[in-house]
Amino acid sequence: TERSLVLVKPDGFQRGLTGEVLRRIEAKGYTLAALAVVTPTREQLAAHYAEHEGKPFYEPLVDFMSSGPVAAVVIEGQDCIRGFRSLAGATNPTEAAPGSIRGDLGRDWGQAVQQNIVHGSDSPESAVREIGIWFPDL
Ligand code: ATP
């Protein structure tokens, strides 16, 4: 079955939303294959966000993502990559549909970086790459 890398970002972790995110993942029927609380290093984030390097939001994004602990989670289940992105909702939490994690729990906090609670891998190739970054022993 398919695996995806989910991060509860520093805003979600700090707000105590990790349990709510995990609850939605499990309620959907996906299982947890790995779970860790880590404060990301800039090296990890440079690897994770390599595709965004050079974009105007890249440095603020790395600053934000390294600002505190995140919950890193490997989820498992049929089509869980697309399925979790559907659970997460649109990138911009102001526009994300009600019923989604970002739509129900997020908004635009007026920060330089969108604090949108969660990350989810966007393709099978990204999932394999990202799981290798956050869980090298898995
Ligand atoms: P994620 O990869 O976190 O699940 P996504 O795939 O919806 O989100 P990407 O386009 O991959 O979004 O961007 C990665 C992250 O960079 C976003 O989740 C958001 O935190 C931040 N980001 C993306 N676009 C912008 C932007 N225009 N301004 C500020 N931050 C942005």
TrEMBL record:
ATP binds at residues 9, 57, 85, 91, 102, 116. Keywords: ATP-binding, Cytoplasm, Kinase, Magnesium, Metal-binding, Nucleotide metabolism, Nucleotide-binding, Phosphoprotein, Transferase. Its main location: cytoplasm. Residues 1-138 form the Nucleoside diphosphate kinase-like domain. It is an enzyme of class 2 (transferase). GO terms for molecular function: ATP binding; metal ion binding; nucleoside diphosphate kinase activity. GO terms for cellular component: cytoplasm. The active site is at residue 119. It holds the Pfam family NDK. PROSITE patterns: NDPK, NDPK_LIKE. CDD domains: NDPk_I (cd04413). Its cofactor is Mg(2+). Major role in the synthesis of nucleoside triphosphates other than ATP. The ATP gamma phosphate is transferred to the NDP beta phosphate via a ping-pong mechanism, using a phosphorylated active-site intermediate. Homotetramer. This is Nucleoside diphosphate kinase. The lineage of its organism: Bacteria, Bacillati, Actinomycetota, Actinomycetes, Micrococcales.
